[in-house]
Amino acid sequence: MKRPHRQVRRPRIATAALAVAAVGAVIAPQTAAHADQGPAFLHAAPNGSGESCSATRPCSPQAARDAAREVGGQDVRIELADGTYEMSEPLKLGAADSGRDGHTVTWTAARGAQPVFSGGRAIEGWSEGADGTWSAEVPEGLTPRQLFVDGERAVRARGAACAASTCDATKTGMTGATATGIAKWRRPTGAEAVVKVRWRNYHCRIAGVEGDNLTFAQPCWTNSASGTNRTGPAWDSTTVDSSRYSGVAFFENARELLDKPGEFVWDAEDRTVTYLPREGEDMRHARVLTPATERLMVVDGAHDLRIEGIGFAYAAYGQPSTDEGYAGTQAGLTLTGATGPVDHAGRFYTKPSAALTVRGGRHVDVSKSEFTHLGGAGVILESGTKDSSVTRSRFTDLSSGAAYVGDTEPNPAADLAGERNTVAYNTIRRVGVEYTDAVGIWAGYEAGSVVDHNTIDDLPYSGISVGWGWNQPEAQKSVLRDNRITNNRITNVMRVEHAQHDGGAVYTQGAQPGTVVSGNYINRSAHGNTERDGNGIYLDEQSSYIRVEGNVITRIGYKWVSNWADYGIQNHATGNWTDTDAPALSGTGSTMEDNHTGLDRLPAQALAVAARAGAHGTPAEQLRPDLAREGIASQSSTDGAADAAYATDGDTSTDTRTLSEPGAWWQVDLGEARRVGQVEVWNNTAMTTADFDVQFARTADFADATTLHVTGRSLRPTLLDTDAEARYIRIKLSGTGRVALAHVLVHPART
Fold this sequence. Notes:
The protein is 4% helix and 38% strand. The protein is mainly beta.
């Protein structure tokens, strides 16, 4: 019999309109008919046994699950005692483990307890080598892809980058075995090549070495290269053998690369792991764990279920260590299988393994839980999960992303559609540690989803990604609609040292009628980038019918809002605050109105919006006043219309440019001598300016100048701290060439 729809209560959202729109996720109130009957309590412990499941004689989680199935007519609370629950297989909850007749089954920590489901296995018996490394034998069945020493993640031993001129990638393999020394390694087939091309990340194991040529495990390499007709959109140029390939980021997991404290190597033939300790680590007493169990809890077809206050740690992600490897496509999803349907819209891409997976759930609510030290992702809600949520939880130190919601089929059957799911008030930090193309929160083809009041910090790629399909024919019409990305605090994402490009703090794809991006505070997305790249809010590809309103967006490597595609239509950006400007939105009917751009101080209203964003409410980082924008800019010569004033117009998308000449320069006259504390130099879109001096002088002849030298190309931006009194600031080439700049800001010294 069809279960009647049950009214539910969402977490508190900032606006009444959002609370009304966000139908059905978090806590179900008891009806009056059940108010006088308390819940049935069951108790589990790490060493629990038997079937009584009482407070004095707790049972195992599996026995508690089975006992809960016998309870009817009331809520059930399964309380977990403090300690580590070592999971050799996931705890599986199905339809039989649902709340019945309007009741709820809750899995929760006992009062004051911190239960942790752990997939980790200890590696013991360490012995010291003559070179200062320590080694231990690894039990059968374990493949230590990650290693944690006293709770701190170790790094797989890695080497230097190898440029494409040496490591030339083709559809079948790569050159460079001789120049890199790989040809002389004792066991090169245990090592992997890690390649980054734009937004993609690839990890493929070396399968063989012949002369200067390397081959790689299959199907990993084929799925990373072009020509399969399965790797992505027809226009895609981000495969390992594409024109965008610039070389190997690094090779990893070879004994010859083990040279830095905190690195380790796994030798599959000897079944040993070798580690070079950090200062202060004593391997005779250290607790060393490797993730071994892939999924710690799987909820399949259950409803009216709560999971709260539980820790999930040391879950594994096995696929990258197999011949499938990690053929990254976008956002932590991969292409797998040697064959498969022809598809350019990513419908058949594979999500990473997660510590907690919910499939086809209804009213499944995860709250106040902690996900840490994971080899894969944190949470997946998929296969038609509806009216479910992940709230008030923490995600830290994950190899992949934090939360994946929904699937990649644009027009699923009704029972497989993701609807009205919520990810709110979570704290997400340092995820994508190993698979740097992963995102903090990913949502595929979702309708009515809410991503609200999350704090997201320190990510290599995008913070929040909603939508899929790259405007491919099979994806142009989908179930996407009415999603809300609101009141999130997203800082320090698209970290440039990880070299993942073409993303943003908030990233969208696909036509999404009724979707709103509002009230978010975004600070430092791709800040300090090495090219014209990295956005605040990125309405990519066919993103359409999206409203961007009332966000605070500062210190962005490229555009605060980007909507470049002419087939993305009727997007509207209004009432946002930002320290730069951006070109008008592309696409029919798209508009930018009443935005507050080019700011050098955030007004009180913007500061209030920013302070309300995120899981905890934290003040924004105020902008620093810019002395240059009131000054007079000039340059040694002007190429065409690229006037010197474009560097002080508050817009990083307009560029100055001199002619190519010896000692070319750009400068600004502040009008009077001022105490200068910092200069920001933003290179132009072509990254032209390189090897230059920044001079500070009180006099126009620069006879009294002090100088700071920058070697190599300026970034977006290069930050130069100083304590100089100057009226004139000049950027001057050391040799012959052009000076071309998008932006120069001169900040007064702090008082």
